[in-house]
Amino acid sequence: MSGQTIALVTGANKGIGYEIAAGLGALGWQIGVGARDAERRDTAVEKLRADGIDAFGVPLDVADDESVAAAAELVADRVGGLDVLVNNAAIVGGVPQTPTTVEPATVRTVVETNVIGVIRVTNAMLPMLRASASPRIVNISSSVGSFALQTTPGIDMGQVPVAYLASKTFLNALTVQYAKELADTGILVNSGCPGYTATDLNGFQGVRTASQGAAIAIHLATLPDDGPTGGFFDDAGAVPW
Ligand SMILES: NC(=O)c1ccc[n+]([C@@H]2O[C@H](COP(=O)([O-])OP(=O)(O)OC[C@H]3O[C@@H](n4cnc5c(N)ncnc54)[C@H](OP(=O)(O)O)[C@@H]3O)[C@@H](O)[C@H]2O)c1
């Protein structure tokens, strides 16, 4: 590996993921733009490169074992390692999604991408992360997955699609368990919440810009070696579980 820090961002072709790629790239890092659609991926890589960012495309469908294995090989072959993994890709899975009406198939699809996809990608990239001097894993979660906020009287999150919400609670549990298992490795693993951000995910109803939404991921990707692990953060600090 060269001295340049290398990051892979999943779902980096648009929205918050694109801005995470842009933000980390602006630090002089080499950025793998993980995206499943070739055209959308190429367009994003070209746009980042036009902005002076050292970006390269990584074909990646987080819901597909073979795609993820091939992505790990591509990163290893092309840049020889990985320092930072940002698990950003996620879907809502269609609405409405209330507990009493949601289709089991919808839940399966959402969990396949938002949860199993994170395990799949993380475990495929882990050998490279273990070999890095300052490895970081950032799981893009959401405060809607917080049990504490869901159960605090007076906090109204509105009608959050239930499979999506539960997938983020599940993801937060994984963040804690990965951090525990990897505690002696130097790999810092944290969940970050971007806040309610205007993207395709919510029909651009969010109130923050994608660049604002990306800030917490950039913070967690650049933590010092003695930084926190196994935590859940947004721009204001720790988010209650
Ligand atoms: N927006 C918010 O208010 C908000 C709030 C809290 C948390 N978040 C989280 O922030 C992250 C980014 O969301 P966003 O708002 O930027 O949404 P977005 O604009 O819809 O972007 C989602 C990204 O994930 C990709 N993706 C979905 N399924 C994939 C798969 N199987 N393999 C590879 N990539 C896949 C999408 O690629 P395609 O273009 O191919 O679909 C897209 O690049 C998500 O984890 C989301 O849960 C968002």
UniProtKB/TrEMBL annotation:
Domain of life the protein comes from: Bacteria
GO MF term list: oxidoreductase activity, acting on the CH-OH group of donors, NAD or NADP as acceptor
Keyword terms, alphabetized: NADP, Oxidoreductase
InterPro entries associated with the record: CBR1-like, NAD(P)-bd_dom_sf, SDR_fam
CDD domains from the UniProt entry: carb_red_PTCR-like_SDR_c
Family affiliation: Belongs to the short-chain dehydrogenases/reductases (SDR) family.
Protein name in the entry: NAD(P)-dependent dehydrogenase (Short-subunit alcohol dehydrogenase family)
